[in-house]
Amino acid sequence: MKYNFNEIEKKWQDFWETNKTFAAEIDHAKPKYYVLDMFPYPSSEGLHVGHPEGYTATDIIARYKRMKGFNVMHPMGWDAFGLPAEQYAIKTGIHPRITTQKSIDNFKRQLKSIGLSIDWSREIATIDPKYYKWTQWIFMQLYKKGLAYQAEIAVNWCPELGTVLANEEVPEQIEKGYTVVRRPMKQWMLKITEYAERLLIDLDMLDWPESTKEMQRNWIGKSEGARVTFKIAGENSGSIEVFTTRPDTLWGATYMVLAPEHPLIDKITTPEHITAVDIYKDNAKNKSDLERQQEKDKSGVFTGAYAVNPVNNEEIPIWISDYVLMGYGTGAIMAVPGHDERDWEFATKFHIPIVEVVKPTGSQQSDITKEPFVEDGVSVNSGFITGLKTEKAKKKVIAWLEEKGLGKGTIQYKLRDWLFSRQRFWGEPFPIIHMEDGTVKLLPEDVLPVMLPEVDNYKIIGTGESPLAGITEWVNTTDPETGKPAKRETNTMPQWAGSCWYYLRFLDPNNEKEFVNKELEKYWMPVNLYMGGAEHAVLHLFYARFWHKVLFDLGYVSTREPFVRLYHQGMILGEDSNKMSKSRGNVVNPDEVIANYGADSLRLFEMFLGPLSATKPWSTNGIEGVYRFLNRIWRLVVNEDGSINVKIQDVKPEGENERIMHRTIMNITDDIEDMDMKFNTCVSELMIYVNEIFKLDVIPKELILTLVKLISPFAPHLAEELWQKLGHTGTIAFEKWPEFDPAKVKKQVVTIIGQINGKVRSKIEADTDTPDDKLIELMKQDEKIRSYIEGKEIVKEIAVKNKLVNIVVK
RNA sequence: GCCGCCAUGGCGGAAUUGGUAGACGCGCUAGACUCAAAAUCUAGUAAUGGCAACAUUGUAACGGUUCGACUCCGUUUGGCGGUACCA
Known about the structure:
Blueprint: H1 5-18, E1 32-37, H2 51-67, E2 71-73, E3 77-78, H3 83-92, H4 96-114, E4 124-125, H5 129-144, E5 148-158, E6 163-165, H6 170-175, E7 181-190, H7 196-201, H8 210-220, E8 223-232, E9 239-244, E10 255-258, H9 265-268, H10 274-286, H11 289-294, E11 301-308, E12 315-320, E13 332-335, H12 341-350, E14 358-359, E15 378-379, H13 390-404, E16 407-412, E17 418-419, E18 432-435, E19 440-442, H14 472-475, E20 476-478, E21 485-488, H15 496-499, H16 502-505, H17 518-524, E22 529-531, H18 540-553, E23 566-567, E24 572-573, H19 590-597, H20 599-608, E25 616-617, H21 620-637, E26 648-649, H22 655-673, H23 679-694, E27 699-700, H24 701-711, H25 716-725, H26 742-745, E28 749-756, E29 759-767, H27 772-781, H28 783-789, E30 794-800, E31 804-809
Parallel strand pairs: 1-2, 1-22, 3-4, 10-12, 22-23, 24-25, 26-27, 28-31
Antiparallel strand pairs: 5-6, 5-7, 7-17, 8-9, 8-11, 8-16, 10-13, 11-12, 14-15, 18-19, 18-21, 20-21, 28-29, 30-31
Helix pairs in contact: 1-25, 3-4, 19-20, 20-21, 22-23, 23-24, 24-25
The chain binds one RNA strand of 87 nucleotides through helix 8, strand 9, strand 13, helix 12 and strand 25.
C-alpha cells in the first residue's frame, strides 16, 4: 500500500471538520494558550508558498500545546478592506465586496488544504458589517474619550492613490514609486501622542524581537531637554520659544532658525528682507518632503530681526531655513554651530560665528573650526556652568531657566498624532454626521453599523474627497436624535482600523451586544504567541497596542499589552533567490506543491528550509527530500499489502533503542520550546531517529508510537493515518506528548577526544562520568597520544568531563 | 550619514553556547536490484597531497585573548533590514 497523501489528507481534513476537533471553548481546568497569526489580506492572487511558513509554525505550536494539555485558541480571519479591491472595482465596475469574497473563499480553501488546526467557527472578516459595527463602536469610545478630533493640517497627500497617508505609511509608498506631497486638509486624527510614554515604557515588558522594539522606540523618538524663550530684540517685539536637548550649549547659540511655515516670520521680518523671505517661503511650500530630503546643501535667508540670548544678553540673528521642521518641537531652534552638525554646516556656509562651549574630556581632541563636537564633555566659556560635565551642566541650566521664568525642562517626542481618515470607498464609514450649523455629531450606538452604500461607481472624484461624497442619497441623512438634516462623514477609516482589535473579536465572534464578552476576554487574553512579518513592526503592531491601551483604560480589556510574545517569520524567496513576484515568474503556488507532494511534505519542508526567522530561497529538489522521508516513514509502518510491518513487535525498548527514543523526545521537545522555534533541527532529529529505527530487525512498538506522536504537529495527516493503522480510534491531536527521562539519554560509554596542544590527535572510549584525573591517565595510555608526548615536557593537562583531554607539551 | 542584524562545503543549513567544524537534507560519484528505467537500498563526498594509514590547510579578511575560538574582543570588507535634517 502506497503513501497516498491525497486520500489521507482529504480524509483527515474532513474528519477534523465534521468532528469540530479544534473548536476551542473555555475550560478552567486547563491552562490556556492563545496562538495567533497576523490575519492575511485576501489578495486575488491567492497564497504563495511564503504564507504557509508562519501558519505552519504556529500550527505546530498549537498542536504541540494541545498535546501538552493546554486549551488552545488558534483562529483565522481576513483583513479584507484594502486598496487593490477598490482599484479593481474602479476598473471593472464589480463591487469590491464580491471580488473580496471570492478571494476570501480561495484563501480559505488554500489554508484548509494545508491542514491547519484552526477553529474555523471563529472566522471573521473586517468587511463584515457585523464586524465593522464594532470597529465603529471602538471609534466612538475614542471620540468620547477625546482621543479623536478633526484638524486642518498639512497632511501627506498621494495624488496617484487619491488619498492621504499616515506618517507611518509614507516611506513604503515612496518606495513603490508614488509621490507624496504636503498639503493642508481637514482630517480625522487620533491622539496617539497621549500614549507615547506608555507605548514606550511598556515595550520593556514584551518578549519581542529587540529590533522591532528598537524600531518602535525610534518611532516614538523620546528626547529630554528644555524649552527656552528668546526675546526678540526691540521694544515689545514678542518672543520665540525653542526646544533643545542641549541647554548646556546656550552660550554657544549664535543665531536662531525658524521653520519656513513659522507664524512669527511675517511679524518679525524687516522691510528690506521681506521679498527674499517670501520667495524662500513660497519655494519651501511647493517642495515635497522627498525634494527637501534630497537637498544636501543647506539653504536659508536672514529675516533682518535679532533675538536676545537669555544667558548672556547677546543679540543673535534670526534666519529661516527648511532644515527646521514646523512639525517637531516648536518649529524654531537656537542654533549652536560649534556642537551640532546641521548648525555647523549652515553657519559655515553663511559665515555665522562658531563658538566653542563644550570641550571633550580625557585625551580626546576637538577642533570646532574643522568639525562640530557633538558629544558630551565639559562646558567652557559658559558662565556659571563652566567646568561642569554635560549631564550636570544641563541640570543646572534648566534649574536656572525655571527660576528666572525663561524656560523649563521638558520631554519631546517625534511621534505625531495618527492621521486616521482616508478618501476611499472601501473602508469603514465613520459613525459621524455633520449638521447644517457646522457641528460634528457622533451617531448614537443603536444605529450602528453605518453601512457602506450599494453603488456601482467607485471613481475617485477629483480633489481629495472620498468617492462616498458623490453618493448624495447616502450622504444626505437626518440626525436620528433631532430629525434635523445632516450630512454623513464621507471619509473612511484606514485599513489598520480593522486589524487593531481583531484578536479580541476572535474570542467572541458572534456577540451582538458587546465587542467581546468580558469573561471570555479575561480567560483568553493576552495572546501568548503572535506570528507575522517584520514589515508590520511600526504600523499594525503600534496601532494595535495603542487601541488596546485605550480599551484597557476604559476597562474593556484586562491586560496592558495585547501580544506578550512576538515572532517574525522570514521571507521565502523564489528558487532564483529573488523576491517572489509575478513579473519575475518565480512564484511557487502551494496548490501545485500540495498536488504533487501533499500538504505534509509542504509543511515539513517549509520548516526544514532553515531557521524560521531567516530569509531563504525555495528549492524544488529540497521538497523531494522530505517527501522521500515521509514515504520512508510510511513504509516503516505499512507493508505493500496494507498490513503492519512484522518487524514492529510488542516488546519493551531497551538499551540503545530506549536511549535513542529518549534522546529524540528530548531534542525535539527542547527545540519546540526554544524561544527561537528551531523547527529545522526538529525535522532533522526526526530523520535521524527514523534512520536509526530503519536499521533495526525488531522494532519495539513504542518507538513507532513515539515517532507518530512526535511527528504529528509537523505532518498531522500522516500521523493521524498511522495512528489509526496502529489500532487507535479517533484523533491523535489530544494524545499526551511523549516524555523523556534525562537519565536514559546518557550514554554508558562516551568518546573522549585526545588533544595535543589543542589539536585532535586521538579518540578513546571511556565510561560516562569518569573523573578528570582518571581520564587524563587513560588518555596518556593511548598509543597515538603516547607517541606525541614521548620525550616532551608536559606543561599542562586539561580534562573536560565526558568530552576531551588536552595535553600541552613543549 | 546613523542604528540594528548577518557572513560556515557545489547548495539549504547544523554545532550541546568556549571543547571532534560541516549534523540533517539536496546535489554529485560508485555499487546492488532490473532486460531497461523509475523507485528503493548500500557506500563515498570541505580543500590539498597520498594506494592507504595519515598529514596540512580551512567557518568573509587581518590581528588579539585562551590549553583550546565558527563561538569572546578590536579593525576592515561585503550583504540585508530600518531610518533619515526630530534640534
